Amino acid sequence: MDARNTPEIIVQGIAASPGIAHGRVFRHIQSDLAPPSYQVRPEQRAGEQARFERALVTTRQQIQRIKTEVEKNLGADEARIFDAHLLVLEDQALIGETEREFETSSKNIETCFDKVARRYIQAFSEIDDEYLRERAGDIRDVAQRVLQNLLGRAEQTLNNFDGNRVVVANDISPSDTVGMDRNKVLAIVTDSGSRTSHAVIVARTLRVPAVVGVRDLTKRIVDGDQVLVDGYEGTVIINPPEQTLLRYGKIQVTRRNMEQRLLEASSQPSVTLDGAEVMLRANIERTDEMEQVRACSAKGVGLFRTEFLYMQGNRVPSEEEQYRVYKAAAEFFGNENESVTIRTLDLGGDKPMPGSQGLFPQEANPFLGMRAIRFCLEHEHMFKEQLRAILRASAHGRVLLMYPMISGPDELDRANELLAECRAELREKGVAFDEKMPVGSMIEIPSAAMVADILARRSDFFSIGTNDLIQYLLAIDRGNERIAHLYEPGHPAVLRMLRHVVEQAHKAKIKVSVCGEMAGDPRYVPLLLGLGADELSMAAPLIPAVKFLVRAMKMSDAKALATEALKQDKAAKVAALCNAFHNERMASPSAAGNSKIQ
Ligand code: PEP
Ligand code: MG
Predict the structure, then answer these.
(1) Mean pLDDT split into 10-residue runs, the chain, 598 residues
(2) Which ligand is nearest to the CA of 205?
(3) Facing residues of 513 across strands?
(4) Do residues 543 and 280 make contact, with C-beta atoms less than 8 angstroms apart?
(5) What is the 468 CA–ligand 1 centroid distance (Å)?
(6) I want to staple 568 with a disulfide (CB 3.0 to 4.6 A). Which of 142, 453, 481, 573 is the partner?
(7) Are the C-beta atoms of residues 211 and 231 closer than 8 Å to each other?
(8) Which of helix, strand or coil describes residue 55?
(9) Dihedrals φ, ψ of 183, to 5°?
(10) CA of residue 467 to ligand 2 center, whole Å
């Protein structure tokens, strides 16, 4: 489409990941692969069988192609998993049973295949043998591909396009972003979502500009349209004319210069003007982000979201694989004052493992369902593999472990019992681990916050997950763009809850970190510090701006801000106080003086 002949259209969404990008659109529509079920007439039977055979052949070709690519880019070891996938396609039992199911039920072939594959996945995932259990993941992955081909859907990846594109999607799952090629995706725009949905968190870490909640945009554009994405302001411009491109080009240069100067200044100590040290750590999803964390001068990792390991490979990684990854992180951040806080698996909610029908049955309310610690306590064998991997990694650096989505003492006690069993097993085998590895609880469910005193007696530290805490406290689905404006970190209920948690933790003499997105938002950083948070953890690219602010403020002022904010009756008044505090510090000459940025 020629941008000169078409009018410029400006649409507003939610600014989700900073940056400006311009390019052609790749339209990505996600839909679930629940196959339709219908009866097949006798005269259609031969055609149905031929369709099945064709889908198997196409799937084989796709897997071969991916295997070759992975071999080329990552090496033969990484590509071996696809040999297992090819074996699934040759599994005569799976194919034969599908054909038998087709004979007896006369249902369409995808319904028969889906039914048999689910039965297999369930059976394999319950076997008490690591090798065979891993095969459930292989079958799951291959089954998804076969279904995709039977249903005539394009391969669901964010890379199957030529050149560089702006991805415009109805929705993007965190697993989409895991497999995404950063070099090809210029920006992401979605119809749905909010600042704290997990796919957006990943985009921010990868420095991919993103705008979300642009309702129905996918219905207004077609593949190949030109768009400009402003991830700072949340604006998307369809068919931008030359003038607009020029204006945004200048904005981009100014922003980049500013970011570069903040990055250079970030090597300076994280200390307020009145001498209080503020510990800043990074949130990571993958170990290839560690260099970026170091470049931002973070003191290690405050939240390692391990579920991305599971989502990357669409399967449960073995204890050995996990150990290697956690050990690499522990060793990388081995300096004094550095540490790595590894969070146990938080699958579920908006992060199901792709293709894992057996493990994650359909739920009406996944965010209130089988997620995180609940899922782990239902799958103890899998959970214990992760616990042992983390314990073993603790022999190689300062590792802390924390459990997500703790709702009360029962879950925490059970998780700690399993951890004690793992310790005993390792001791018996003479395997080294840190006997004093700190074990903490995430506070991200209001019930946990209310019993913070009870949990504090059983925890070595707290880490407040504000993304979920706000979601559950205010009953605002963190991924729903229609109510995203009601998601208010400054709500008086949020402030009171944060104060309560910090007070209870400090009474029990344990530290409190905050690792939700609020911790990386410079407008709310002084409030969190003023409320008593001991540490903050955020996506690495956000650290330079937060550190700059820390160096431009006094802790005594932050405490006064928190006292004032707690007196307010409305979120808007709290937000106004926080904005004013932030803007004054960023404009003050002392900010520049302390950070030597000018
Ligand atoms: C949170 O809920 O704030 C958090 C840090 O965890 P996640 O975003 O991974 O749910
Ligand atoms: Mg959470």
Answers:
(1) 67 93 87 76 90 90 75 62 80 89 91 89 75 70 83 67 86 70 89 82 87 89 92 95 94 91 90 97 93 94 94 82 96 93 93 66 85 95 97 98 98 98 98 98 98 98 98 93 91 98 98 97 97 97 94 97 98 97 80 44
(2) 1
(3) 463, 535
(4) yes
(5) 6
(6) 573
(7) yes
(8) helix
(9) -75, -20
(10) 6
Q: How many angstroms is it from 303 CA to the middle of ligand 1? A: 9
Pairing of strands 210-212, 14-17: antiparallel
> Could you tell me the maximum CA-CA distance found in the chain, to the nearest angstrom?
84
The CATH number for 88's domain is 1.10.274.10
- Number of domains observed in the structure of the chain: 3
CATH number where 400 lies: 3.20.20.60
Whether 179 and 132 share a structural domain: no
| 422 labelled catalytic | no
Q: Are 447 and 575 members of one domain? A: yes
Model-level pTM greater than 0.90?
Answer: no
Q: Which domain holds residue 566?
A: 263-472+510-593
Catalytic residue among 198, 396, 491, 582: 198
- CATH code of the domain containing 11: 3.50.30.10
Distance CA 368, CA 434 (A): 34
Amino acid type, 549: L
Among protein residues, the one whose CA lies closest to atom 9 of ligand 1: 305
